[in-house]
Design goal:
Radius of gyration: 19 Å
Number of helices: 12
Structural class: alpha/beta
Number of strands: 7
Largest sheet: 7 strands, parallel
Amino acid sequence: GTWGIGGLMERDNSIDVGKQIDALAYMFGRGMNFVEANMWYSQGYSVEILARALKKSGKKREDIFICQAIYLKEGKTLEQSKDEVRKIMDLFSTEYVDTLQFSMGSFLRSSFEEITSWIEELLRSQKIRYTSITNENLEMLKKYYARFGEKFFSHEVVFNFEIRVNEALGIIPYANSKNIKTVVYQPLRRNKTSQRNWEPIVNLAEKYGKTQNQIILNWIVSKRYLPITKSENIAHIDEHLEAVEIKMEENDIKLLNDYKIPNYSSPEIDWNKSGIGISVDQ
């Protein structure tokens, strides 16, 4: 994950860039190879930092999988998005991006046909290998798959121990049925889940001698989802990586799968920017 690298929506020159580069280079060196590059984050500064970190790690371009996220926000046009793809390739000294990802909201600002035709052009010219989508409803997921088939690599959604709406609505199950990878953001809810001390997670952390966050990450990976994590702390990076090595018993995984958060009900989701409900990322 790259949110917070170089700043948030705007570049933050007060950030310790050296520390961020060191942390990212360490991740690459440890084998973390799926990275999201987004020119909207910190006004493109995050991608500059990523490229510098890859160089410092000693890894080759081919050692990592670049998911470039395109957000059509604040009046940005598709032509400007085309410039972003060129900038990513320049920064990483590469001739291709592994997958190009659009948000469902992008199709409310530019037509489905216009965006997907451009993606098909990039696929034909081998400027991208695959395409992806994020924060989509089931209808859009099916529509995107019908257009791209096996070139539809992944969909990115919010999912964690507490918030499982994308499973409940059939979005993740459909993706699984079509071999579309599920990439999960906020898998730990930025450490909020562990602060709630949910009984089954606390008990399993004690049973396996691990942290609550490690239990959560291991559970998500056991479902064959890809959790995106981000940290500038080497100890936390090691903690995240060690989570995949836990061998939880099947009945413990089932316990977590079946657990329901007391008194939780999802608010209405505003998929089409109607103003009724909340956006799915919130």
